[in-house]
Amino acid sequence: MLAQRRANKWADKEWKKGKLVTRYKCNPLGTASHAKGLVQEKLGIETKQPNSGIRKCVRVRLLKNGKKITAFVPRDGSLNYVNENDEVLISGFGRRGHAVGDIPGVRFKVVCVAGVSLWGLWTNKKQKPHA
């Protein structure tokens, strides 16, 4: 009975992920919660059905390992504060490593641009430093 229970544990997705440590091997951020990267390009991603619209995202190349990921830029008009080759700080986007809502394949969001919080830029409380 004990051997059968031990064998059946491997059928549980979450238990198996924890045992094999694949959530850290597959995650571009590794074990970190945030990571810095350089913006490669801006792009718009079409939403999944039944919604319609274009969600503003950026392609980011991470500084720590060179991997390229897609990150969502939250709030209306925030993409105007992000330029190509800017250094951005990204974090997870909820749902523990899965895509969120109607944006397919996007697992991260932009938090800071050039060391300044995106929320501060959006509310006009802070300014982006000029290089």
UniProtKB/TrEMBL annotation:
Keyword Ribonucleoprotein found: yes
GO biological process, one term: translation
Cellular component per GO, a single term: small ribosomal subunit
Keywords: Ribonucleoprotein, Ribosomal protein
Pfam families associated with the record: Ribosom_S12_S23 (PF00164)
Single annotated GO MF: structural constituent of ribosome
UniProt record similarity statement: Belongs to the universal ribosomal protein uS12 family.
Name of this protein: 40S ribosomal protein S23, putative
Organism for this UniProt entry: Entamoeba dispar (strain ATCC PRA-260 / SAW760)
